[in-house]
Amino acid sequence: MQRRERSRLPAAERRRQILEMTTKLIAERGFWGLSMQDVADGCGLTVPGMLHHVGSKDSLLVAVLEYRDEQDAQSLADKLGRPVQQLWSDGRISLAEVCTAVVARNAEQPEIVRLFAVLEAESLAPGHPAHAYFRVRQSNTLSQFAGLADPAVADPRELAAQVVAMMDGLQIQWLREPETVDLVRAWESAAARLFG
C-alpha cells in the first residue's frame, strides 16, 4: 500500500486545494468520471480525510461550481473596475461591455470553460446533482443580462437569451478547435450583429 505524504494545511486552504483539484479532474472527465480517490490522491489525502472537508461527492460538485462563480465574479469586477456588488446594478455598464469582459476572461481559462460546458450538458438530466444549480444559474444570468440591456430593446430577456446562446455556442466551437477559432475575435464579430 502506498503511503501518502500529507502536509498540514489550514482548513480554508485545504478546501481550496480540494476544489481546485476537483475542478481540474471534472474538466478532464466530467462529473460521472470523477473519482473521489483521484481527488484525494491529488491532494495527498485519504478519501475520508477529504470528505471531512467537503461532505459528499454531490456537495463537492456544488461547492466547485459556487467557488468558480465567486472567482469569475471577482475577476469580472476587476476587469470592469467595479465592486462585485455593483456589477449588475450601478447602471454605468452596458450588456456589451459585460459580455466582452466575460469572453476575455473565458479566453484565459479554457479548462474552466470546459468544466462548465461539460457539467451543463451532463446536468440536463434531472437526476444530476447540478441540475437545480444550472437551472437557477441560467435564470439569474438571463435576468442580469436583461437588466443591462439598452432600454430601447423591445424584449430584453429575449436579447439576453440570444446573447447567452451565442456565447455558449462560440465557446463550444473554440473548445473543439482552439487552434482555428479565436474566441475573442469571434465574439467581437457576433457582438457587432447582436448589439448593432
Automatic annotation (TrEMBL):
Q: Which residues form the signal peptide?
A: none
Q: Which GO terms describe its molecular function?
A: DNA-binding transcription factor activity; transcription cis-regulatory region binding
Q: Which residues bind DNA?
A: 35-54
Q: Name one Pfam family in it.
A: TetR_N
Q: Which residues form the HTH tetR-type domain?
A: 12-72
Instruction: Give UniProt keywords alphabetically.
Output: DNA-binding
Q: Does the keyword DNA-binding apply?
A: yes
Highest taxon of source: Bacteria
Q: Which PROSITE patterns match?
A: HTH_TETR_2
Q: Is Endoplasmic reticulum tagged as a keyword?
A: no
Could you tell me which SUPFAM superfamilies the record lists for this protein? Homeodomain-like (SSF46689), Tetracyclin repressor-like, C-terminal domain (SSF48498)
Please state what the protein is called. DNA-binding transcriptional regulator, AcrR family
Please name the source species: Actinoplanes derwentensis
The uppermost taxa in this organism's lineage are: Bacteria, Bacillati, Actinomycetota, Actinomycetes, Micromonosporales
